[in-house]
Design brief:
Elements: H1 8-11, E1 12-16, E2 27-30, H2 41-44, E3 48-49, H3 57-64, H4 70-82, H5 87-94, E4 99-103, H6 112-127
Parallel strand pairs: 1-4, 2-3, 2-4
């Protein structure tokens, strides 16, 4: 799929691991620290598993004790991501391919993959990748 016509937001997608993979997923990257229950490697159909891109175990446990902590969790996870080099491999993959971040959480809006996606989009826009116009490419 040609990325020259896709806005960066469309080049980086989210999908639950329990949903079937699609050809339009591009490179599927699991971003959970733990392997999802009941999913075989074949069914997962992954390009990579970047478990270190997930929140730290302590942050994850802290948040899961009280899901109303979402705003604080989001802030703390973004702080972790700024110091996390493991997201570089995901960012490098996005430069040449459509990427779908794969996660197990049932909450589609308040999950670490959504925060990671937001973080990656901001990094890509800030880096202004040479040779790739990250402005609204849908106008071209």
């Amino acid at each position: 799929m040609s990325l020259s016509v896709l806005p960066i937001e469309e080049s980086l997608k989210l999908r639950r691991i329990y949903e079937p993979s699609l050809k339009t997923d591009g490179k599927r990257i699991l971003v959970d620290r733990l392997w999802p229950r009941g999913i075989s490697k074949q069914r997962a159909n992954l390009f990579l598993w970047v478990k270190d891109a997930a929140p730290s175990a302590d942050l994850r446990r802290w948040y899961h004790k009280d899901l109303d902590r979402w705003p604080e969790f989001r802030v703390q996870y973004l702080i972790e991501l700024k110091e996390n080099n493991s997201v570089d491999v995901i960012q490098d993959t996005i430069k040449s391919d459509v990427v779908t971040l794969i996660f197990a959480n049932a909450n589609l809006e308040q999950n670490h993959a959504a925060v990671l996606r937001e973080h990656l989009i901001e990094r890509l826009k800030a880096d202004a990748i040479p040779g790739r116009d990250l402005s609204d490419r849908s106008k071209s």
